Amino acid sequence: MTTVSDTVHYVFLAAAACFVLGLHLMNHPRTARRGNTLSGTAMSVAVAATVWLVADEGAISRTGWLVLAGGGLLGAALGLWAAREVRMTAMPQLVSLFNAVGGGAAALIAVNDLLQADTPAAIGARVSVPAALDIVIGAVTFSGSLIAAGKLQGVVSGAPVVFPGARLLNVLLPASFVAGTAWLVLAPESRTALYGLTVVALLFGVTMVLPIGGADMPVVIALLNAFTGSAVAMAGFVLDETALIIAGMLVSSSGGILTKLMADAMNRSVANIVVGGFGTGDGAPTATGSGVPAQVRSVSADDVAIQLAYASKVVLVPGYGLAAAQAQHELGDLAELLTDHGVDVSYAVHPVAGRMPGHMNVLLAEANVPYTQLKEMDEINPEFPQADVALVIGANDVTNPIARRPGNAISGMPILDVDKAKSVVVIKRSMGHGYAGVDNELYTDPRTGMFFTDAKKGLAELKSSVAEFVT
């Protein structure tokens, strides 16, 4: 006879299989939404099955049910609000907060399991080892993600924050992890070991992310996402839940792969990024349309519209400025107008454009940009020499030619070869530098025209002007 416990176990396995399939579907923009829906549905079913199992066991009091229901409703309401109201510019911060919530929740599972054990001293290594690892990874993720979100939001300085003794502290704290983990494994009943390990891990999360500059935030977000998955997997071992282990490892492995890809896109190692010191935060304006340096060529909407209307091939290069202005729909409308006019239009998407992995892809998908027009760096770079116009919207460091020369902050970082196009137009509000804190030589190139304006307003003007030339 199949019990409720057996049925729920099979549901968990089915949900885990759906997680794997959902992650596979997210491998391509065309199927990503379907994969997200499948994974979300599987998670909802798994949560419902968990509630069913708990109800069947009768292990929760009426007060406990009220807390469970209240937490579920509150979480669902916050999730729905975030999905509908949070702007794309704030999405990286939201992802960091999600990482914090995931890591913190996983760590609390281990803490609660140790505190609620009937005979803590009898807990074996099968539980105490993953519990200790869960606390370390989860607590580091929690505090580190909060600092990352603060940097992205501007609450914490986007520049590297390095105080005297910071490097030494970041060596001593991991050493404390080893000692604290060993202590907790050998004496799981020790409250001192439990609380001490938690505090040290929380502190390390802060000191680890503070010295990392804003330019590295996309990599940091991916890394902390991998940490979240690892913490969830450890929680699965603590609770002996296979589905939780599988889900956690999927997040951990995919986050780890993404971290490596993002680091490669910046030509830097993950270890070098964690050491910190790269990026100064948002650049302060050094010139505006009313006072640009003599070597910079300023252009108007009509100047750019003529180039676009009579071009055969146009490459659009979106960056964080596009997200900040919420101008993705205007860019999509301009591209559609050019395409209807017979212009070959492509989007050049750099892996670290924006402030989180896939930021530009998500932004353009929101504007219903055809997936076939999105091209990654390796695919689009050979096409720039054939492009009549490369239109850059707010992208800075990822288009800077000085990356090809040694001796500067972004030396060796693979960039989009925008400067190889026949003509370049850059839409920016000012000559301010990007997160790496270096000036962009592209802006003083003789073939570059600077269209000083807000991206949303500028793209709307371009669409209107182009329409006059093509009709």
TrEMBL record:
The chain crosses the membrane at residues 7-26, 38-55, 61-82, 94-111, 131-149, 161-186, 192-212, 219-238. Residues 10-463 form the NADP transhydrogenase beta-like domain. It comes from the Bacteria. It is found in: Cell inner membrane. It is a multi-pass membrane protein. One of its GO terms (molecular function) is proton-translocating NAD(P)+ transhydrogenase activity. GO terms for cellular component: plasma membrane. Its EC number is 7.1.1.1. The keyword GTP-binding does not apply. It holds the Pfam family PNTB. Keywords: Cell inner membrane, Cell membrane, Membrane, NAD, NADP, Translocase, Transmembrane, Transmembrane helix. It catalyses: NAD(+) + NADPH + H(+)(in) = NADH + NADP(+) + H(+)(out). The transhydrogenation between NADH and NADP is coupled to respiration and ATP hydrolysis and functions as a proton pump across the membrane. Belongs to the PNT beta subunit family. This is NAD(P) transhydrogenase subunit beta. It comes from Streptomyces aquilus. The lineage of its organism: Bacteria, Bacillati, Actinomycetota, Actinomycetes, Kitasatosporales.
